[in-house]
Amino acid sequence: MTNTQKLIDSFQTTTWIIHKQADGLSHEDSVRQLPFRGNCFNWVLGHIVEHRDQVLAALGAPALLSEAEAALYRTRSEPITDGETAVPLPKLLRLLDEGQAAIAAALNDTSAEQLEAIYSAEHNQTVGDRVAGLHWHETYHTGQLEILRQLAGTNDRILG
What pTM was computed for the model? Predict the structure, then answer.
């Protein structure tokens, strides 16, 4: 059985890490590109926010990104290569926090029975499984931000 408080705490932890990795970065820093195929800090953060909207959808709550904004950050979307097309970094960070609050509120309003309800019969997945899986996906991308932060020349160590 999925524990709502554990999920809330897990999303709060990655929110804290993301803010630490973004600290001191400008919007321009967030769109710097790696010298090989990959996505920039802005795309990874936007992708996390877009996936938090998927968490909200699984919990019956509304999305925070507009459809046009979400399209920029979906899986297999084109890389963000300039600051003009990207959602500004401060807005993404604000949406991350709003998403955290919305996820916590939605989880607090979700019963154990609702979390154990079938989300996908095809994948034998409950709503709780879906939310926990989306959080795992978020942790994967949160880890990428450490390297992407260094593109701004920070040459620092935030965690560990």
Answer: 0.95
